[in-house]
Amino acid sequence: MTVDGFGFDFEQAVRDALESLPPDLSAAMSNVEIVVDDIAPPDSRILGLYQGVPLTRRGSSYGGVLPDKITIYRRPIERVAGTDPVRLAAEIRHVVLHEIAHHFGISDERLVELDRY
Questions:
Q1: Among 42, 51, 73, 93, which residue's CB has the most CB atoms within a 10 Å radius?
Q2: Is a pLDDT exceeding 50 seen at residue 46?
Q3: CA end-to-end span of the chain
Q4: Is the dihedral of CA 107, 116, 48, 53 positive or negative?
Q5: Distance between CA atoms of 21 and 14, rounded to whole angstroms?
């Protein structure tokens, strides 16, 4: 458990966001790992990153591959959301759901169309 200086458990907030998924959506996720990292790649302004093969692009030859990876970046999210626990939890949930959308093959452009970016 990692609790920051103001008593907020970032990793628990990520778990809470995952647990908020409807059961059928959660069950449909496949071969994906979700991790928390403190910092984003250099010169990057991202809050989260999906790396892998979206479910919509997996065919019959998909197999024997490493898990997809969703990385949630702690410090960039804290810079955006500040120290308010409610705002921080909401931003974490937003980023987690955004990256899960990519796992399901939903592009940034489509998320904008859906007003979910």
A1: 73
A2: yes
A3: 29
A4: negative
A5: 12
Residue 29 CB burial class (10 angstroms; 0-12, 13-18, ≥19): middle
Give the residue among 24, 11, 26, 8 at the shortest CA–CA distance from 97.
Answer: 26
Determine which helix (DSSP H) or strand (DSSP E) holds 46, and give its type and residue range: none
pLDDT per residue as tens digits for the range 63-100:
888 999 999 999 999 999 998 999 999 999 999 999 99
Q: Which helix (H) or strand (E) holds 73?
A: strand 68-73
Tokens of 70: 């969703």
Q: Are 10 and 74 in contact (CB under 8 A)?
A: yes
